[in-house]
TrEMBL record:
Cellular component annotations (GO), alphabetically ordered: cell cortex; microvillus; myosin complex; stereocilium membrane
Acetylation listed as a keyword: yes
Residue span, TH1 domain: 850-1024
Gene: MYO1C
Keyword vocabulary terms for this entry: Acetylation, Actin-binding, ATP-binding, Cell membrane, Cell projection, Cytoplasm, Membrane, Methylation, Motor protein, Myosin, Nucleotide-binding, Repeat
Positions with a binding annotation for ATP: G105, E106, S107, G108, A109, G110, K111, T112
Source domain of life: Eukaryota
Coiled-coil annotated residue ranges, if any: none
Biological processes, Gene Ontology terms: actin filament organization; actin filament-based movement; endocytosis
Family recorded in the similarity comment: Belongs to the TRAFAC class myosin-kinesin ATPase superfamily. Myosin family.
The protein's name: Myosin Ic, paralog b
C-alpha cells in the first residue's frame, strides 16, 4: 500500500486513515472523487473497505486478480473486495476463529454484487474435490434464485434486494467450502400487492411470463402479457430495457436444477407463483357491506394451480366471508368490499412470504453437506451479511422503521467491535489506550426496543388491546409514553419551525445518521400481518406439498396469538447480533455515486448523504483517535532500511533496535511515534508521507549504484565465461575439422572411382560395376523433376528423362497432371463455379467476336449492379412475388430522335423489366424475346428484338450498358437465349413500331460517341481495342 503514496496527489490515498485533515468531510469526499475518476473504486478506512459502484464492468475481477490477492498480506496490495475476502479466509484458517463480512449500503450501491464477488473468489481459490465442487456450484447458483424471488426493480436500483440476507459458508479442516446456511430477514411482502410508480413486483413473476414455455403457461392459465395481471401493473413499469427477463428465466431454471429441486417441486413452486397472479385478478362487486366475486375466470384457475381441487366452494367463500367462532358456534360474517380486497391481498402476501421462507429452507437443505456432517462435527464459518442500508425517503413507513432500527443495532455493534479491536491491538503491543469520545447510539436502540417502554412494545400493545385501536391512537400513545425522550419528536411536541415540515400523522427519530420522519399510517396493519382463520384452513387443505409445509395444521389448533412482525424482527435481529458478536468481523461499506445509474458521474450531495448515513466519518475518527499507521517491525525495516546507513544494506540485531535506529536517523519526534512489542505506531500521516517521499528520492541513487555494481560484475563474469568457452570450443572444433577433412577425402575418392567405372559400363546390363552410376542418374532425374514440376494445369513443361526412365517418366507426368486437375477442382467453391459457368457462356458468345471481350475476362461478374437502396420501393412492390435476379443501370435511346434516357434493367425469372424511378416502363417476357443484337466493337449498345405484332410492345428496345458483356450474359442465361445473341459488324436493323425500321451504324473511332446521324440513323463510334 505504501508504494501508492507517491501518486497520492493524483489518485488520493488508499486508506482514509492517512488523510491529513481526517476530520473534514470535504477532504474525505474529495479523496473518493479522485479515486473514482481513476476507476479506483475501493478505499480502506483501516480494515474497513469502502466501495463505490462504478455502474460499468471493470477488468479487476479476473482469475489473475484473484491469484494476485490470494495469500497476500492485507496491506501489501491495493484495496479490493478480494483482499477482504482473502484476509477473512486466512484469519479463519490461521486463528481458527469464525469470521463474518458485513456488507451495507443504499439500494443500488452494489451490496449484492459485492457478495457475489466474494462467493466467486472462494469458489475459485479454495481447494476443492468433486463433492466440494457441488457445494461451490450450489452456493453460486443460490444467488440467481434468491434474486429472482427476493429482488425487484425500484426507482433506485434495477436489481434491488427486498430482503436482508445472512449466509454462513462452512469450511472443513482443509479450508474447502463444504456447506452453507442462509437466514433471511424482513421480506418486503407488501410489494406483492402494491408497487410505487416506476417500480416492479419481484422478478420471478415477469421471468415466468416472458420466459416460460407455451405449454407451461397454458398449464398455469397465464398469458404472455404482464399487463393482464393487476399485481404487475401497479407501478406502470412491466418491462425494463436493462432487464432481460427471458434470459434470466433460463438462468433461474438451470440454478434450481443445480441446487437440487426436483421437477415436481419446481412445478409446485411455479403453481404457487401463478396462483398469486390469479389471486390479484380476483375482482369484487356487489354492495359495500356484502362483497361478491365478479371475476369467475380467475377464481376457477386458483384451485387448479394451488391443488385445492376439492374445496372450490370453500375458497370462494373464504374470500368473501369471515368465519367467527362464538360460544362454540361457527358464524359467517360477510365482508365489505374493502375487507374482501384486504383479505385477498393478505392471502397473496402470506402465500408468497411463506413460500419464500420455504425456498430459503430448501436451499439450506441442499447446502448441507451430509457426508461431511456425519464424519466431522467441527467446521469453520465465514458469514456474509448483505443487508439493507439506512433508508430515508420522502414517505417512510413501517418497513423503513425496521430497516433503520436494524442499522442502529449494526452501527452500535460496529463501533463497539471497532473500538474493541483497537483497544486489543494497543494492549497486545503494550501501548497505553487513550479513551475515545464517540456517539453511543444505545439510547436510540433502547428507545425502539426497550421492554414495556420502547416503540415496538407500545406498537404491540396497541395492536393487541381491544377497542378501536388505530394508527393515530398508537401515535398518541407514543407521545404519552416516550414524548420526553431527546431523540423523539412529533408534530404535537415539536416547535413551530419543525411543525412546518412534519405531518400530524408522523413522528421523528433522531438516528445516529440523521433525522427521519415516519408516517404511522399502516403501522398497525403491517405489524399485525394477520390472515383470516378460514383462509388458513383452505390453504391447509391444499394438495400442493409446498403449501402444506407453509401452512401447518398445527396453526389452526394453536390458540396463542402469533408474534407481531416487529417482535419477530426484533428477535431475529437479536439472534443476528449474537451471531455477529461470536465472529471476527470485516466490513464493506457500499456507496452509490449517483441516482441515474450513469458511469463516471459523481454526485457529491448524494455521496455526502451516504457518508453520513453509513457513519464513515465516525468510523474514521475512531480509527484515527490513536495512531494513523502501524506496521510490524520486519515490514517497516525491510521497506525503509535504505534511508539509514546504520541499517543498510542489512541489519543483524534485534528488529526493534533496527527500527529505533532508523527512526532516530529520520528525525522522528517522540510524540510522532510509539514502539510496541512487535509493531511501530506512527501518529501522523505527514510523518509517513515524508518518509515515503524520502524513500522515493533514495531509490534513484540506490538504483544507480546497484546498476553500476551489477553491470561491472556481470560483464566480468561474462568475459571470463566467454574466454574459457572460446578456448575449449576452438580446440574441440579443430579436431572435428581435421577428422572431417580426412573422411571427406576418403569418401570422395571412392565415389569418383565408382562413378568412372559405372560410366565405362553404362551401356551394359545392370551389374555391380555400373549400379551406382545408374542409380545416380535415376536419382538426379527424380531430384530435378521434383524441383521442376509443372506449376499448374496449363504448364506443359516436363524434364527430359534418361532412356531407362522414359516409360516411368510418362506415367509420372500423367499422375502429376491428374493430381493437379483434382486439386484444382477440389478448391473450386460453389460461388466460383457459378462464376466460371457464366464466364464460359460469355466466352462462347463473345470470344473473338466482340472487341471489349478480352478486357471483361479478368473482371468478375457481380450478382447485381444495383442494391436495394438504388431501386425504388414502388418498383419492388410492382414486381410482387417475382424475385429479381440481376439489376443494372442502362441508357435507353428513344425511337424518335434517339434521345438518351436513364433507365434500370431488371431481370427476373420470367421477364426483363425496364424501370424508371417508381414506374415499370416496359416488361419483355423471355418467351416473346426474338433475339438480341450487339456490335463487334467495344461499345455497350445492344438491341432487344420483340415481335412487331405484340400490341404490348412498341418496337425493339435500344439500350446501352457500361457492363455489356456481363449484362448480356446474365440476360442470355435468364432468358435461355444463349444462341439468340447476334454480333453484327457495321450496322444493326431494328423495328421502331408501326412497321418502321431503324438502323444503328457502328464505326471505329478514337473515342466512344453515340449520336443521331444526318441520315436519321443512330451513329455509334467506338474505339477498337483488339485486332481480330
Amino acid at each position: 500500500m505504501e508504494s501508492a503514496l507517491t501518486a497520492r496527489d493524483r489518485v488520493g490515498v488508499q486508506d482514509f486513515v492517512l488523510l491529513e485533515n481526517y476530520t473534514s468531510e470535504a477532504a474525505f469526499i474529495e479523496n473518493l472523487r479522485k479515486r473514482f475518476k481513476e476507476n479506483l473504486i475501493y478505499t480502506y478506512i483501516g480494515s474497513v473497505l469502502v466501495s463505490v459502484n462504478p455502474y460499468k464492468d471493470l477488468e479487476i475481477y479476473t482469475k489473475n486478480h484473484m491469484e494476485r490477492y490470494r495469500g497476500v498480506n492485507f496491506y501489501e496490495v491495493s484495496p479490493h473486495i478480494y483482499a477482504v475476502a482473502d484476509n477473512s479466509y486466512r484469519s479463519m484458517r490461521t486463528e481458527g476463529k469464525d469470521q463474518c463480512i458485513l456488507i451495507s449500503g443504499e439500494s443500488g450501491a452494489g451490496k449484492t454484487e459485492a457478495s457475489k464477488k466474494i462467493l466467486q473468489y472462494y469458489a475459485v481459490t479454495c481447494p476443492a474435490s468433486e463433492q466440494v465442487q457441488t457445494v461451490k456450484d450450489r452456493l453460486l447458483q443460490s444467488n440467481p434464485v434468491l434474486e429472482a424471488f427476493g429482488n425487484a426493480k425500484t426507482l433506485r436500483n434495477d436489481n434491488s434486494s427486498r430482503f436482508g440476507k445472512y449466509m454462513d459458508i462452512q469450511f472443513d479442516f482443509k479450508g474447502a467450502p463444504v456447506g452453507g446456511h442462509i437466514i433471511n430477514y424482513l421480506l418486503e411482502k407488501s410489494r406483492v400487492v402494491h408497487q410505487n410508480h416506476g417500480e416492479r413486483n419481484f422478478h420471478i413473476f415477469y421471468q415466468l411470463i416472458e420466459g416460460g414455455e407455451e405449454d407451461l403457461l397454458r398449464h398455469l392459465g397465464l398469458e404472455r402479457n404482464p399487463q393482464q395481471y393487476q399485481y404487475l401493473i401497479k407501478g406502470n413499469c412491466p418491462k425494463v430495457s436493462s432487464i432481460n427477463d427471458r434470459s434470466d428465466w433460463k438462468v433461474v431454471r438451470k440454478a434450481l436444477t443445480v441446487i437440487g429441486f426436483s421437477e415436481n417441486e419446481v412445478e409446485e413452486l411455479l403453481n404457487i407463483i401463478a396462483s398469486v397472479l390469479h389471486l390479484g385478478n380476483v375482482q369484487y362487486g356487489g354492495e359495500d357491506s356484502n362483497a361478491c366475486i365478479t371475476s369467475d375466470i380467475q377464481i376457477k384457475y386458483l384451485p387448479r394451480v394451488t391443488l385445492v381441487l376439492s374445496v372450490f366452494a370453500c375458497l370462494h367463500l373464504s374470500l368473501t366471508f369471515l368465519s367467527l367462532c362464538v360460544f362454540h358456534h361457527q358464524l359467517m360474517s360477510p365482508l365489505n368490499l374493502e375487507q374482501a380486497s384486504s383479505a385477498r391481498d393478505a392471502l397473496a402476501k402470506a402465500v408468497y412470504g411463506r413460500t419464500f421462507t420455504w425456498l430459503v429452507n430448501k436451499i439450506n437443505t441442499s447446502l448441507t453437506y451430509t457426508v461431511y456432517t456425519r464424519t466431522h462435527t467441527n467446521y469453520s464459518v465465514i458469514g456474509l451479511l448483505d443487508i439493507y442500508g439506512f433508508e430515508v425517503f420522502q414517505h417512510n413507513s413501517f418497513e423503513q422503521f425496521c430497516i433503520n432500527y436494524c442499522n442502529e443495532k449494526l452501527q452500535q455493534l460496529f463501533i463497539e467491535l471497532t473500538l474493541k479491536s483497537e483497544q486489543d491491538e494497543y494492549e497486545a503491543e503494550g501501548i497505553t489506550w487513550e479513551p475515545v469520545q464517540y456517539f453511543n447510539n444505545k439510547i436510540i436502540c433502547d428507545l425502539v426496543e426497550e421492554k414495556f417502554k420502547g416503540i415496538i412494545s407500545i406498537l404491540d400493545e396497541e395492536c393487541l388491546r381491544p377497542g378501536d385501536a388505530s394508527d393515530l391512537t398508537f401515535l398518541e400513545k407514543l407521545e404519552d409514553t416516550v414524548g420526553g425522550h431527546p431523540h423523539f419528536v412529533t408534530h404535537k411536541l415539536a416547535d413551530a419551525k419543525t411543525r412546518k415540515v412534519m405531518g400530524r400523522d408522523e413522528f421523528r427519530l433522531l438516528h445516529y445518521a440523521g433525522e427521519v420522519n415516519y408516517n404511522v399510517n399502516g403501522f398497525l396493519d403491517k405489524n399485525n400481518d394477520l390472515l383470516f382463520r378460514n383462509l388458513k384452513e383452505v390453504m391447509c387443505m391444499s394438495e400442493n406439498k409446498i403449501l402444506t409445509q407453509c401452512f401447518n395444521r398445527e396453526e389452526l389448533s394453536d390458540k396463542k396469538r402469533p408474534d407481531t412482525a416487529a417482535t419477530q424482527f426484533k428477535a431475529s435481529l437479536a439472534k443476528l447480533m449474537e451471531i455477529l458478536m461470536s465472529k471476527e468481523p470485516s466490513y464493506v461499506r457500499c456507496i452509490k455515486p449517483n441516482d441515474s445509474k450513469q458511469s463516471g458521474r459523481f454526485d457529491e450531495v448524494l455521496i455526502r448523504h451516504q457518508v453520513k448515513y453509513l457513519g464513515l466519518m465516525e468510523n474514521l475518527r475512531v480509527r484515527r483517535a490513536g495512531f494513523a499507521y502501524r506496521r510490524r517491525y520486519e515490514v517497516f525495516l525491510q521497506r525503509y532500511k535504505s534511508l539509514c546507513p546504520g541499517t543498510w544494506p542489512n541489519w543483524d540485531g534485534k528488529l526493534s533496535d533496527g527500527v529505533s535506529t532508523l527512526v532516530k536517523h529520520l528525525g522522528y519526534k517522540p510524540e510522532e511515534y510509539k514502539m510496541g512489542r512487535s509493531k511501530i505506531f506512527i501518529r501522523f500521516p505527514k510523518t509517513l508521507f515524508a518518509t515515503e517521499d524520502a524513500l522515493e528520492t533514495r531509490k534513484h541513487s540506490l538504483a544507480t549504484k546497484l546498476q553500476a555494481g551489477w553491470k561491472g560484475y556481470s560483464q566480468k563474469c561474462k568475459y571470463q565465461k566467454l574466454r574459457n568457452s572460446a578456448i575449449a570450443v576452438q580446440a574441440w572444433w579443430r579436431g572435428i575439422l581435421a577428422r572431417r577433412r580426412a573422411q571427406h577425402r576418403r569418401q570422395a575418392a571412392n565415389t569418383i572411382r565408382r562413378f568412372i567405372k559405372g560410366f565405362i559400363y553404362r551401356h551394359k546390363e545392370r551389374c555391380p560395376e555400373n549400379e551406382y552410376f545408374l542409380d545416380y542418374v535415376r536419382y538426379s532425374f527424380l531430384m530435378n523433376l521434383r524441383k521442376n514440376l509443372p506449376k499448374n494445369v496449363l504448364d506443359k513443361s516436363w524434364p527430359t528423362p534418361p532412356a531407362a526412365l522414359t516409360e516411368a517418366s510418362e506415367h509420372l507426368r500423367k499422375m502429376c497432371m491428374q493430381n493437379m486437375v483434382w486439386s484444382y477442382c477440389k478448391k473450386i467453391n460453389p460461388e466460383w463455379k457459378h462464376q466460371m459457368e457464366q464466364k464460359m457462356i460469355a466466352s462462347e458468345i463473345f470470344k473473338d467476336k466482340k472487341d471489349n471481350y478480352p478486357q471483361s475476362v479478368p473482371k468478375l461478374f457481380v450478382s447485381t449492379r444495383l442494391d436495394g437502396e438504388n431501386i425504388n420501393p414502388k418498383v419492388v412492390q410492382a414486381l410482387g412475388s417475382e424475385k429479381m435476379k440481376y439489376a443494372v443501370p442502362v441508357t435507353k435511346y428513344d425511337r424518335r430522335g434517339y434521345k438518351p434516357r436513364h433507365r434500370q434493367l431488371l431481370l427476373t425469372a420470367n421477364s426483363a423489366v425496364i424501370a424508371e424511378e417508381g414506374k415499370l416502363k416496359q416488361r419483355i417476357d423471355y418467351g416473346t424475346l426474338k433475339g438480341i443484337s450487339v456490335s463487334s466493337l467495344s461499345d455497350g449498345v445492344f438491341v432487344l428484338h420483340v415481335p412487331s405484332e405484340d400490341n404490348k410492345q412498341k418496337g425493339d428496345v435500344v439500350l446501352q450498358s457500361d457492363h455489356v458483356i456481363e449484362t448480356l450474359t446474365k440476360l442470355a442465361i435468364c432468358a435461355d437465349k444463349i444462341n439468340s445473341i447476334n454480333i453484327n459488324q457495321g450496322s444493326i436493323k431494328f423495328t421502331m413500331g408501326q412497321g418502321k425500321e431503324g438502323i444503328i451504324d457502328f464505326t471505329p473511332g478514337s473515342e466512344l460517341l453515340v449520336a443521331k446521324a444526318k441520315n436519321g440513323h443512330l451513329s455509334v463510334t467506338a474505339p477498337r481495342l483488339n485486332s481480330r
